[in-house]
User: Which sequence fits this backbone?
């Protein structure tokens, strides 16, 4: 299983079909599907090469351990919405946002727990 999962893809694109057609000097709609296919493929290729999305999107990262810090697999990262885990009773819990921080000035971005954060015991399936 990939530890990074796309939750919400961007609804925006870096280049619109209209912009691409203007650049290509295409005035009819006969080739719209083909041009859009090329745009989508180019964007996907860039994202795969960079290993990060071109436009804003939402991702989940799954970790099997509680490291004090780790590199996030996407860049840039604008926010961490939540950190959740399953406690000893297999009940989902959320870590208070005051217990961790995002170091978004690094490449790749880094997630860190505060030094005084005590890692909870977790459910082991």
Assistant:
């Amino acid at each position: 299983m990939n530890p990074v999962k796309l939750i919400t893809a961007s609804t925006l694109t870096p280049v619109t079909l209209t912009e691409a057609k203007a650049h290509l000097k295409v005035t009819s709609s006969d080739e719209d599907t083909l041009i859009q296919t090329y745009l989508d493929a180019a964007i996907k290729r860039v994202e795969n090469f960079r290993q990060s999305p071109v436009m804003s999107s939402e991702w989940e990262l799954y970790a099997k351990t509680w490291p004090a810090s780790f590199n996030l697999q996407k860049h840039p990262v604008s926010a961490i919405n939540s950190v959740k885990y399953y406690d000893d009773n297999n009940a989902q819990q959320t870590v208070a946002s005051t217990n961790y921080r995002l170091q978004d000035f690094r490449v790749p971005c880094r997630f860190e727990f505060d030094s005084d954060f005590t890692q909870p015991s977790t459910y082991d399936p």
The first strand starts at residue 4 and ends at 8. The first helix runs from residue 17 to 24. The chain has a mean pLDDT of 88.
